[in-house]
Amino acid sequence: MPAAAGPAVTGDGMRIGSNGDTVTGRECAGREGAVRITALAGGIGGSRFLLGVRAALPDADITVIGNTGDDITLHGLRICPDLDTVMYTLGGGISTERGWGREAETFTVAEELAAYGVGPAWFGLGDRDLATHLVRTRMLDAGYSLTDVTAALCRRWQPGLRLLPMSDDRVETHVVVDTDQGRRAVHFQEWWLGMRAATPAQEIISLGAERARPAPGVLDALADADVVLLPPSNPVVSIGSILAVPGLRAALAATPAPVIGVSPIIGGAPVRGMADACLRAIGVATTAAAVGAHYGARRTPATGEGGGEAGTGETIDGTAGSDAIGGASGAGAGSHGAGGAGAGSHGAGGGTAGADTGGILDGWLVDTADTGAQVPGVTVKARPLLMTDIDATIGIVRAALELAGV
Predict the structure, then answer these.
(1) Which of 173, 220, 231, 374 could form a disulfide with 46 if both were Cys (CB 3.0 to 4.6 A apart)?
(2) Does the pLDDT at position 265 exceed 70?
(3) DSSP-based three-state secondary structure for 221
(4) How far is Cα 148 from Cα 146, in angstroms, rounded to an integer?
(5) Structural domain of residue 186, as residue ranges?
């Protein structure tokens, strides 16, 4: 837990920095000349991966574009579960046992609400966590954007990175289910926590996404990155919700940085949670190869004198990658990345850039349980992906960076 007190809160709810200036998103991170890493992340899996990113490159300038599709209003409070999980985890305040909420949490308020018969009982609203939601709601009601609010909250927690919501506009994930009362749409949190995703999802909808705009700084973070990472977050309701905001998928396609994803599926099962239920809803198999194909290649394989080809699931041990790849400009720094542009290009020179495909991946890390997995147009590498401790997580991050040529 941070020992230092955070900035003051004004009467209208705005947090103010120690120098008297309004807190901005850049104050959460920003190191001139450092490697610029941008990550798209959900909650628990993304946060644990980000711990590894920060440990592997402590001087990096890290920007995280966080999912807000899980956000929900309960008891008049605006709750942002994924943003808070990233903030608490990187700030040292997360419950390490649960992976969400605060350490040493109590639930007195939740118990009192239950005694009054006020629900929902399926959402664990902790007493310490309640303070975060009170501050956020107060600031939002005062007219501040979610970007400003998130930056102000980060001022207390000092996560060592810049945390941006995917959008300042309200976007909520809802799930269409069949019940005894007929077909209806429920908030994702009710389906995930209340129903435990046991009721099959007929459709997953990002309400408001079509009208949303990327939050300030989001598109710049993608355009200016040296590498873009997709942690092992839920590909449908975390990464998928972020990509549903107009302009974000196109920005990923256009960035000159290589885009490297880490599979959330190992041996045909989610690493954590119930991502398989989400994947079934969109008709994608629960395999590392299928999720990689769902994300898709940014470009068709380039051709050249060296004979460009997609990766074929070659195994690496996380300490010595062999086929670093370039981004949109083919500028990868690895031993085989100097030739053609596009994912999986191995030509040594004279390559021809592949065509845009609408996908988002250049490279894809899978677990050794999935060695041999292939994604057309994407360089696939296999190595252990279980984040059993910080050293294991650092190894995964380093493998992703080596694949990117960083």
Answers:
(1) 231
(2) yes
(3) helix
(4) 5
(5) 172-206
